[in-house]
Amino acid sequence: MSAELAVFLVLAALAVAGAVSLIVQRHPIHSALSLIVVMVSLAGLYLLLGAEFISAVQIIVYAGAIMVLFVFVIMLLNAGIEERTNLSRMARYVGLPLGVLLMALLAYAIGRGASSQAPAAAGPAPTKTLAMMLFQDFVFPFELTSILILIAILGALVLAKRES
Amino acid sequence: MVPISYYLVLSAVLFGLGVVAFVFKRNIITIFMAIELMLNAVNLAFVAFSRALGQLQGQVFVFFVIVVAAAEAAVGLAIIILIARNRQSLNVERVALLKL
Amino acid sequence: MSDFLAQHPILVVSGIKVVVMMLVMMTALAYLTWFERKVVAHIQSRWGPYRAGPHGLLQPLADGLKFLFKEGVTPAGVDRFAYYLAPFLSLSLALTSIALIPFGPQEIRILGQPTSFGIADLNIGLLFLFAITSLGVYGVVLAGWSSNSKYPLLGGLRSAAQMVSYELALTMSVVGVLLLAGSFNLREVIAAQRGFHWGFLPRWNILASPLPQVLGFFCFFTAAIAETNRLPFDLAEAESELVAGFHTEYSSFKFAMFFLGEYASMITVSCLATILFFGGWLSPFPETRFFVWTHYLPTALLAAAGVWLILDGLRYSTLLGKIVLPVLGLALCGAAALVSRPGLLEFVQGPFWFLGKVLVFLFIYVWVRGTLPRFRYDQLMAVGWKLLLPVSLANVILTSLAMVVGKR
Question: Is A69 in Cβ contact with C134 (below 8 Å)?
């Protein structure tokens, strides 16, 4: 077993364990912590795939900002342990089979389509190339996202403001 | 070398777990987290494809997905705060005024 | 196992570097607390620690032993997992970030393997550092939430908002430096600051040629003080309002871990300020014949400190001091003699200037703590969003404009 495969397996196991724990844990903070574990191990996987910049952004933005916001809101609303209510019948009888079916379908499609594809031996993507691409080929979508963020900030402010 | 299909299978599994969490969790914040989990799973597939094809577009897409997720979290959490304030509960089944 | 290690010597070398670094850091952290108490005491016209050992030099040891032997109280009703995780997260993340700091220009040899002077040398070093510091907020937030008590909760909420807000200004303020250097790698950032204006003024980023990064440095250091939760921005643990903030319910070694984590991030920030704005290990003197004597500055400083220690020790009041201080002084003089030898002389230059600048920043940290009053919470938020963020953004725009105009 190569060192890379070992690292992959450890990180993948961590990610899956985190995702399962997200479902099993009943307190929202514990779910949030599990999700952070998933995100950090995904950042490790990105490093393994040679996407250094994306890996750093994943931790800075996802784990370091978005999840902090989640934890902040959970603390602010003092959310307690999840109530156990009767699941709606739809979720109980259709949800789980559908979820398993979806996973099986995806796995089947991947197994048929991509099983023989080994990754192209590209070195770590230099951040400079990524930046060039972002600011030349994708400059219009990039500027659009800034408008999107502005709208999101305004929306959040308007929604969360207390009416006086 | 780790075959690219391993990454894709992992991505599929994570996405499936996200769907399961989305359907089964009752707390609205946790449901929101399940959506983030699905976005993350898709990101992994994007980066894996970007590696397999030797192109960087996949990483650019991931960058955009992360930006959109940040905007979505800001607005979504503001809505959640409003719901909690008006309904005094975070359980989605108690936010069912439109249900017949 | 031994075959595997023989095939991957980098694992052994990294392991040795990590262990050595941990030992050095732990000692440095312990004596940083002593340094801070001494400096703050003198600012307030007190003597500071004086009883444990000569000049209170054994005080860190006494503190450490006290923390170790205190009863570790776990309050009822805490969320155990998060309660134990939080101090561990704080300390380990703060220590991890030290791993990315390069301490000198040369490669060193461990077990015959050439390796960089510093634990890791990454292409995205700076981004990775910010990634680690952005996770540091969880230590504080989880401690505040898991304690199941109102003051820690308020402290945790405050610090979550504070650290997320100041992280923006912190990241934006270094973009100017990144533009000038064209790289995230900390070694290349330092290499880009080589050279002198008019032959004597160093081309460090604080005096960089298209646009001096004074604004960037101001924003960086202010935001960094807020990021490390230090006075005057320590609203998360304001004792006059929140008892002790997020670590109210922590005792014994778990409290010590928070404490050490805070000091470790102080060291990281000082190293970062040195690297990004003050030329890292570059000497402030040009490499000309006229300035050759500056190579003997480390020797001179060590020797002077040694002689002073010997003289001070001889007239020290206690017997222990009369023995320990002269011995320390002799050791320093020996180090001075060692450092002036031809091979070592060149090697010591980089680390000497680096550590010297870092010490200056640590002193500024303590100085600010000793002299400035704490901000009010709304003032804190206003400074972050209405002053630091716009100024650092303006710095980015001005720097890029200056670079474009300078090229024409």
Answer: no
Tell me what ipTM this predicted complex has: 0.87
Given a contact cutoff of 8 angstroms between Cβ atoms, the answer to whether B69 and A66 are in contact is yes
Q: Which stretches of chain A drop beneath a pLDDT of 70?
A: 1, 82-92, 95, 113-125, 163-164
Of the residues C1, C96, C97, C145, the best mutation for testing chain A's interface (the one with the most A CB atoms within 10 Å of its CB) is C145
Model pLDDT, residue A42:
93
DSSP conformation letters of C60-118: HHHHHHHHHHS-----TT--HHHHHHHHHHHHHHHHHHHTT----SSEEEETTEEEESS
Which residue, among C14, C128, C167, C389, would best test binding to A if mutated, counting the most A CBs under 10 Å from its CB? C128
One DSSP character per residue, A1-47 reads --HHHHHHHHHHHHHHHHHHHHHH--SHHHHHHHHHHHHHHHHHHHH
Chains that touch C (3 or more CB pairs under 8 A): A
CA A99/CA C272 separation, integer angstroms: 48
Q: How far is C277 from chain A (nearest CA, A)?
A: 22
Query: Which domain does A39 fall in, by range?
Result: 1-83
Locate the domains of chain B by residue range. 4-94
In a domain, A51, yes or no: yes
Co-location of A142 and A97 in the same domain: no
| Tokens representing residue C162 in the block | 């504070």
CB-CB neighbours of C372 under 10 Å? 12
Domain B4-94 has CATH 1.10.287.3510: yes
In this structure, what DSSP letter does residue C17 have?
H
Per DSSP bridges, beta strands C107-110 and C113-116 are antiparallel
Closest Cβ–Cβ partner in B8, B30, B79 for A110: B8
Task: Express each pLDDT in C351-396 by its tens digit.
Answer: 888 888 999 999 998 888 888 888 888 888 888 888 889 999 999 9
